[in-house]
Amino acid sequence: MRKTHILCIVILGSFLTIAALHWQLARMAPQWVPSPCACCATFQPPPLANATTLSDGTYTYRLDSDIYNDLFPHLQQYRCRELTCEQSWCPEASAAPLLLLAIKSHPGSSARRAALRRTWARPREMGGFRVRHVFLMAMSPSQKQMNLATEENDEFGDILLWDFMESHHNLSLKERCFLHWVHNSCPGVAYVFKGDDDLFVNLPVLAAYLAQTPNASRFIHGNIERHSAVLRTGKYGVSTALYPQRYYPNFASGGGFIVPGPLIPALYQASLELPVFPLDDIYMAFLTLAAGIPHRHDKRFKVWGIPKDDIALYRDSLTVHGSSVERMEEVWQELWVS
């Protein structure tokens, strides 16, 4: 019995020694540091009014800036600092209107970005539009992921990177900082499609939808959630201290929606006047309401996925959320290549 105890102590001691060595090596490893970026911009948000009240005719919403500063100070105080330069996402001279695909992605999702570049997210002419794409990305604590993302951007030049950390609440910073970027760097864009990197986008059908929809440039297009009830617990939970109301304004589900270029200035101006809400869909809801922009609902934005894996459902959809990399490539090949 005594020998067993001694053996356990020796094994435990060896394990702790190895763990300590790994910890020391991790501390000594060089951390990823962005290179100086002469063409990158930094944006300091202006001071906000103490409170803002908005109404959509059904409900009234009060946003108290002091409370937002107390509970989510980093969202309110962050300066939008870009770490990558604009490449050729918004070329100036072209007869065709620009459709910009702005895709939210994580540094660790390189396989998804590669699949998108092989399918719907690649420079092309489509349905009378000049299509370009950009991946919207923040920082990862993983040095390996950041090194790979840097190499990826060196090769493709399609990543817009900011210096805040990736997190669920920080998705709202992607909305605010992207609005600042597109307002200042891409003023001639005709439409911006915003979506996640696990979307299948039926690009030919989407381009036809924009070309054929009357007054398409007047609306934000998507799967519109109408006065959703506020959740108080879980991933999407919001405290009553931050937001005491029971319902949210209408919003386009963040899985995929379209913003016309002419509406960007009004959304950008609203972003200078409202606090940053910690859920990106709802943050956009308040910006849209403050800007006085109407929504246009279309059920073909399949933000909750599809009930069964049927190629006909993909063919008739504008977007399908939650597609695997393999299935996305299979569907694109079957619909538009073979």
Description:
By secondary structure, this protein is α/β, with parallel strands linked by helices. The protein has one domain (55-298): Spore Coat Polysaccharide Biosynthesis Protein SpsA, Chain A, CATH 3.90.550. It has helices spanning 2-28, 65-71, 73-77, 110-118, 143-156, 171-185, 203-212, 264-271, 280-291, 311-316, 325-337, and strands at 42-43, 51-55, 60-64, 80-81, 98-104, 124-126, 129-139, 159-165, 191-196, 199-201, 220-225, 251-260, 295-297, 301-302, 319-321. The radius of gyration is 23 Å and the shape is globular. Pfam families: Galactosyl_T.
Fold blueprint:
Blueprint: H1 2-28, E1 42-43, E2 51-55, E3 60-64, H2 65-71, H3 73-77, E4 80-81, E5 98-104, H4 110-118, E6 124-126, E7 129-139, H5 143-156, E8 159-165, H6 171-185, E9 191-196, E10 199-201, H7 203-212, E11 220-225, E12 251-260, H8 264-271, H9 280-291, E13 295-297, E14 301-302, H10 311-316, E15 319-321, H11 325-337
Parallel strand pairs: 5-7, 5-9, 7-8, 11-13, 14-15
Antiparallel strand pairs: 1-4, 2-3, 6-7, 9-12, 10-15, 11-12
| Annotated CATH topology | Spore Coat Polysaccharide Biosynthesis Protein SpsA, Chain A
Helical residue percent band: 25-40%
Largest sheet: 8 strands, mixed
What is the number of helical segments per DSSP (H or I, 4+ residues)? 11
N→C terminal distance: 70 Å
- The SSE string, one letter per element, is HEEEHHEEHEEHEHEEHEEHHEEHEH
- The CATH first-level class comes to Alpha Beta
Query: How many beta-strand elements?
Result: 15
Mean pLDDT: 89
**Shape summary:** globular
- Helix/strand/pairing class, anyone? alpha/beta
Give the DSSP E fraction (strand runs of 2 or more residues): 15-25%
